Amino acid sequence: MIQAPRGTSDVLGEDALARERVAAEARAILERAGFARIETPTFEATELFAPGVGEATDVVQKEMYTFDDGGGDSLTLRPEGTAPVCRAYVEHGMHKLPQPVKLWYVSTFFRRERPQAGRYRQFWQVGAEAIGSDDPAVDAECILLLGELLEALGCRDVTLVVGSLGSPEAREEYRTELRAHLRAHEDRLSGDVRARIDSNPLRAFDAKDPGTRQVMHDAPRLLDRLPADDLDHFAEVRALLDEAGQAYEIDTTLVRGLDYYTRTLFEYQSGTLDAAQNALGGGGRYDRLIEQIGGPRTPGMGWAAGVERMLMAAPAQPVAPAPLDLYVAYAKPEHKAAAFRLAADARRAGHPARLELGGRSLKGQLKQADRAGARYVAILGDEGTSLKDMETGEQREVETGTVMHHITQGL
Ligand code: HAM
Predict the structure, then answer these.
(1) Residue 89: which H helix or E strand, with range?
(2) pLDDT at position 1
(3) What is the DSSP string of 261-298?
């Protein structure tokens, strides 16, 4: 039998309802803060992601689902949402709107990662992007909003870590210094880190092997090298978080898997998840991204959070069964058309209603109605229609045309 591809899964029953709850909480929280919904296409031109996400990142080097569309164009299933939202911002001339433009999404994303708990090849993210302002208050507001979402969902054991990467210029100087440090200890580094000393030395802070970790322990820190304006920006973000009573830790080694970040960087982590993928969500500022994908220089800030991971960190909510006002049963095939019409009329009038579709005996139908939690059961037979109130057990003969009236009155 053919199965769903590795790292993907069908979303069924309570899982589907839980995801809807995440989307509903996100909508309520983000729309209250002025974010409007955006949905970008599932695939994009491949060249959006290399300059956007970064040539030297794992996402671009190993994880993208890229294909030739048969017409000579190379397309890629979106591995993340920030570059697509920035593309849409430029494409639709959103710089003409009052800035910042605030957009949110809940969508599927695709990365060819090694599947494990909390890491999938198709996964859902809730994301928020605020484009067009470099005010540190935008950073603080975005950070708080993700915190609010995690709290509303009841995610457990959550910590916020923040850091700053400064401007690309400041980072370039620091990179040179860091490369020298890595070269001086090259023999103790993992092969992966060694291969990226030139292209992406900062990723060494993310390495898990003990040798590299030891070398990184003594490495110079970017935060100690930032110029005054970057430090001021970071100080104001922190002051606003303090003002709002949001607790956080400063992580001088925080690096994220995407290259577009400038200045503020943050992540909410949960102790309930495995250390290797304990990030519920995170993001940061990306003041050069729009320029990198061919637009005018425009600052931006945002985050994305994994829906599956947030649900793993949150207690399961009891799910109430869907209400069913009317179950329409019928005794013989000749009553089927009238039964069909009654169920359709009830639904059109706004009542959840179901018709027997499984070819059950009348007894089987009544059992099914009970199991489904129907409030009323209409039974169509030779002698007319009888309506049973499943709560009181009362049953009476009624005109088929008045069933709706009785239900509405009873409810
Ligand atoms: P990211 O850190 O790559 O950032 O992903 C954000 C979140 O998506 C992660 O913290 C994690 O919860 C979830 N996630 C990522 N990959 C997977 C996976 N393979 N399986 C399950 N969940 C996953 C971004 O995507 C940026 N676009 C965030 C951002 C928005 N930065 C600025 N604006």
Answers:
(1) helix 82-91
(2) 94
(3) -EEEEEEEEETTS-GGG-EEEEEEE-TTHHHHTTS---
Counting as low any pLDDT under 70, the low residues of the chain are 411
**CA dist 322 to 78, 166, 297, 346, Å?**
34, 51, 50, 16
* CB-ligand 1 contact for 81 (6 Å cutoff): yes
Contact 182, 204 (CB under 8 A): yes
All domains in the chain, ordered by first residue = 13-167+227-313 (3.30.930.10), 324-410 (3.40.50.800)
Q: Is the CB of 305 under 6 A from ligand 1?
A: yes
Residue 374 identity (one-letter amino acid): A
Query: Is the shortest distance between the CB of 120 and ligand 1 below 6 Å?
Result: yes
CB 297 within 8 A of CB 286: no
For a ligand 1 pocket test, name from 11, 44, 80 the mutation site with the most ligand atoms within 8 angstroms of its C-beta.
80
- The sign of the torsion formed by the CA atoms of 41, 262, 220, 276 equals negative
> Which pLDDT belongs to residue 255?
77
Residue 326, pLDDT score: 97
Q: Whole-number mean pLDDT of the chain?
A: 94
Structure tokens that stand for 96 in this block: 């003409």
**In whole angstroms, what is the distance from residue 206 CA to residue 221 CA?**
14
Question: C-alpha dihedral over 288, 293, 297, 301, to 10 degrees?
Answer: -50
